[in-house]
């Protein structure tokens, strides 16, 4: 049996013979092993993709895949049973990683597959951008999705996760090359021909946290990125309502059986003087779908992206909301 069939893989990946390609933050591969060591052959087209290794659920080490190398992911002095997880920490812009099993000194056992699935569509907040930067400088080198509210929530609810997120992305505008309506349905976010098969998707709950970047770019119409996406047109609140509605309707079509939570925060988009809570309220109410819910995180991150403590607060709020409304 191919190793891919025995490993537990969470996230949208491309499968190429005996290898997988990893793109999205929060993607994980779990090996249940009885043996002494595990080596993986890993290559990356950019060389900045970062991974965390967990052994029996405990953080062990992390590393950057900077070239085509055989990595000793785990090694023991004796034959033992162990669960080894590889968790992608950062954005897909940092590289596509190709992974194959190089050497296993022992046996690979079939792993446990979770019964519930959450799919997140989001921006840097969902990625966990710079959440480990304690200086407030928003350094992307300190991005750690394992401690993003998305992954924290999934672990607390024992749910499989798909994190479809990119730092800087929005619904109408972006700091990069894509907006979410262009890539939400892709396996490889950089390849429009790789479509995700939603017919096989088992998502129970969708969490959407977007519009923060749209809000920023609307405020600075002369920026290069604003001109790229908006041109010189005056973008109204009703334009945003319509664009958000269209995206939500596409998500509903893609996930017909899932509950959907439309979230805002925890950056300045939820400040009272801004109108985005009302914009999303209107967009959701006009759709008239009783399985689409609304939740706002408080304004926590006033100086930079949210840190790990703020992500824990967001996860607490989200978990409580999911449990209260019995959404999973």
TrEMBL record:
Q: Which InterPro entries does this UniProt record tie to the protein?
A: CE2_N (IPR040794), PCW_deacetylase/CE (IPR052762), SGNH_hydro_sf (IPR036514)
Which GO terms label this protein's molecular function in UniProt?
hydrolase activity, acting on ester bonds
Q: Which residues form a coiled coil?
A: none
The name of this protein is Carbohydrate esterase 2 N-terminal domain-containing protein
Please report the stretch or stretches of sequence annotated as the Carbohydrate esterase 2 N-terminal domain. Answer: 10-105
Pfam families hit by this protein: CE2_N
What organism is the protein native to? Flammeovirga yaeyamensis
């Amino acid at each position: 049996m191919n190793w891919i069939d025995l490993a537990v893989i969470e996230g949208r990946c491309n499968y190429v013979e005996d290898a997988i390609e990893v793109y999205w933050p929060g993607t994980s591969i779990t090996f249940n092993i009885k043996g002494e060591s595990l080596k993986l052959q890993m290559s990356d087209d950019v060389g900045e993709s970062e991974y965390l290794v967990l052994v029996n659920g405990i953080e062990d080490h992390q590393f950057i895949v900077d070239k085509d190398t055989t990595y000793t992911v785990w090694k023991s002095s004796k034959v033992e049973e162990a669960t080894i997880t590889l968790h992608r920490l950062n954005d897909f812009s940092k590289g596509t990683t190709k992974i194959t099993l190089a050497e296993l000194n022992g046996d690979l056992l079939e792993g446990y597959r979770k019964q519930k699935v959450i799919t997140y569509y989001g921006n840097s907040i969902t990625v966990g951008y710079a959440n480990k930067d304690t200086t407030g400088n928003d350094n992307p080198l300190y991005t750690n999705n394992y401690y993003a509210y998305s992954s924290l929530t999934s672990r607390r609810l024992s749910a499989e996760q798909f994190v479809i997120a990119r730092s800087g992305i929005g619904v109408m505008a972006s700091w990069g090359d894509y907006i979410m309506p262009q890539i939400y349905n892709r396996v490889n976010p950089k390849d429009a021909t790789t479509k995700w098969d939603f017919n096989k998707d088992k998502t129970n709950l969708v969490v959407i946290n977007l519009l923060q970047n749209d809000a920023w770019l609307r405020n600075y119409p002369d920026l290069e990125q604003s001109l790229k996406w908006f041109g010189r047109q005056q973008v109204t609140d009703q334009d945003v309502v319509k664009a958000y509605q269209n995206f939500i309707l596409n998500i509903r079509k893609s996930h017909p059986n899932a509950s959907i939570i439309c979230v805002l925060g925890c950056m300045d988009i939820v400040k009272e003087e801004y109108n985005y809570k009302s914009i999303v309220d209107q967009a959701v109410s006009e759709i008239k779908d009783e399985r689409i819910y609304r939740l706002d995180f408080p304004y926590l991150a006033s100086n930079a992206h949210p840190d790990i403590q703020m992500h824990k607060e967001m996860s607490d709020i989200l978990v409580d909301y999911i449990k209260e409304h019995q959404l999973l």
